[in-house]
Amino acid sequence: MLKIPKIRTILIVPLPLIILTAFFFPFLTTFTSPEFRDRIYRSYTFKVIAEHVGGTESDPQILMEEYLDFIYNNLYTVRGEPVVYGGALNDLLRGIGWCDQQANAFTILCYYRGIKASLVMLKGDKNISRHTVARVLLNGKWKIVDPLNGVIFKDSSGRIASFTDIQKGKPGFRSRKHGDFKSSFFKKSYKSNFMERFPPVIWSWPGEFEDPKRAAIRRLIDIYHALFGEIYFSLYQDFYLNRVRELSVEKFDLKKPDVKTYFKARNYQLCGRFAKAVQLYSKISENYPESPYEERARLFKSACLLKMGKLNAAYADLDSFLSNKKKSSWAHVARQYLDWCKYRMGKTKSPASASDVSPDSYYF
Hints:
This protein has 364 residues and is of the alpha+beta class. It has 16 helices and six strands.
């Protein structure tokens, strides 16, 4: 009988283990420190969101506009709700943020598709920040967009205004929602910000994009996504959401069942898994009616129904919400969703609250 040398046995035995470890690496990270585990998940999730929203589109300007619309329709300034920065994905999951958080999440989505972007903090009197927008590098020139208001100033040829164009009030650039630089919106909402004595501050979030370790993680995730696609991510996401009991950035108390349910639902919604999100959002209203997440769960469920084309169900939920929750801090979000629902049903024209991206909102 032919004897296999021991040295060859040592080389042969680990090979299946190496392959299995490589294949299941994202799953195995859930057994590591919360910081490393959550970093892998956040990076992978943003990769999938960027692909889910942008699809196969390769034009940087179109991609940028779709990301602006996605953020505009997913991250809201809600009165009475504390806004504490806890990372871009955390803010998206909460559904709450000021202009800083919206611009930050927008720039990260751009970076995941190779589009350079950064925050522009506009300053007014006494050098105090008044409003944050974003700048995007298109065709070698920096252009200004506003994720908070869903505004992009363009001329008739589709060219987007730069900071200088806006500051000087160059004719020809218009916002679909708010008109040109002579409009009352510009005078009230922008003039005091863009025409200030102090220069704006540019912030590019170096820790997110230039750190070698994080860059290595993103490259690794690119490989997994290219090889295995969204089905693999869905399996990993299910595993992560079912296993995680605490987060490295503590903005959700996952020990509470209503919070855990909301957290899972919102993760599914942002990654386009709308049926699973609807199922979990419904559980919050049914099982935890006193939860602080109940109102937004109802509204985000309606947004999922809109995406699924279930317009009658979405309309009924939104109409009921506004009838019973007129004074809710989320009422303005409900009205925006209801306007889109009516539009999809052919009852009204495109809502005035739509972003500048197009007459049709990408997200809805």
